[in-house]
What does this fold into?
Amino acid sequence: MVDVSELIRVADHRARVAALVGVMPVVEPPLADCLGLVLARDLVAPIALPPFDNSAMDGYAVRAADVAAVPVTLPVAQDIPAGRAHVSPLEPGTAHRIMTGAPVPAGADAVVQVEWTDAGTSAVRVDRAVAAGQNVRRAADDVAPGSVVLAAGAGLGPAQLGLAAALGFGALPVRRRPRVLVLSTGSELVGPGAPLEPGQIYESNGVMLAAAVREAGGEAELLRFVPDDVGRFHEAVGPRLGSFDLLLTSGGVSAGAYEVVKDALSGRGVEFTRVAMQPGGPQGAGRYRGVAVATLPGNPVSAQVSFEVFVRPALRAAMGFARVARPTAVARLSSPIGSPAGRTQFRRGAYDPVSGRVVTPVGGPGSHLLSALAVSDCLIEVPEDVTELAGGAEVTVHMLHGG
Ligand code: AMP
Ligand code: MG
It folds into this structure.
């Protein structure tokens, strides 16, 4: 039996992994490569938006005073498509045919939409009056030049990239993606396509963890797997390690006889501990040859839950996100669950926000139950000191998407 008083708290191990990875340097990739990254400096508008007064409608630029009494027919003096560079001023008593986004001529103070006219090309009959300013989008209405449009720390989604493009930016200062080398260990592992001999299993953590890294915003290189052999471990890792921000291993860290990751990295800067958590008790973290290392246990559910709890927040912090946690919700349990004393338990669950915020535990606590994880959308947190929760009890759930 493990003495729970010797276990490391979940929050402490999380802080340790985050401190190891640190914050990524600032780079300036092209705008199209910035999706999902974090702005490293305030974005100051170099121009106004809109840059000039322009029409909000297809129609006719007029002086509102000239169409106050309708119907009225005005000569059409000019045609102004969008993109026209030079537009002559509007003479009183005339109209310019104008398209959406085209510059409003000097002298005009309103646009009559085409639907309110006979759509004439040499002369136009205006059937309804417009107020001064109607259908005109004023320069700087949206953005004043020199203003901060996005603050440092803003996450860059489609709308933010659209705004940056509208302001003429071709690249943005962002923190680069952390680069993660993913390596699975275990002599029982075989790759897809190979027949399974007795005692073998298909390797699944590598693909899963590399995908988790990418989903978090990082770059992953998958070394796939090595057998439980310290020499083979070093052969695989050694030549690649230097170009990464984090080595992420799975398997080979618990209390068995052939714990390859432990054997390879103990006493070399990586500390192996037990965290007060289920699943995912055995963990390691440290720095090997200058590179941050997080070693996750091998059971697939343990590996993935450990990634969510320890590694994902560290990667998000490294990218510059201020809020690194997944969205959480408070929900009522649909059925009772038990949990070991002295450990924070993360059970897999299906959360239904519609029918009164209910969460249904999926599968049991076993850390080999990968199919249950695959149909879950949240982790149900059972605090360290709680051993039993009745149906209907309130729990915190950590969503497995978003954030
Ligand atoms: P370990 O942490 O190495 O003792 O592994 C614990 C359990 O997880 C064992 O049943 C392993 O076979 C399994 N396991 C370890 N690594 C992987 C992997 N990459 N893919 C699938 N199962 C694994
Ligand atoms: Mg193993």
In short: The CA atoms of residues 64 and 132 lie 5 Å apart. The radius of gyration is 31 Å.
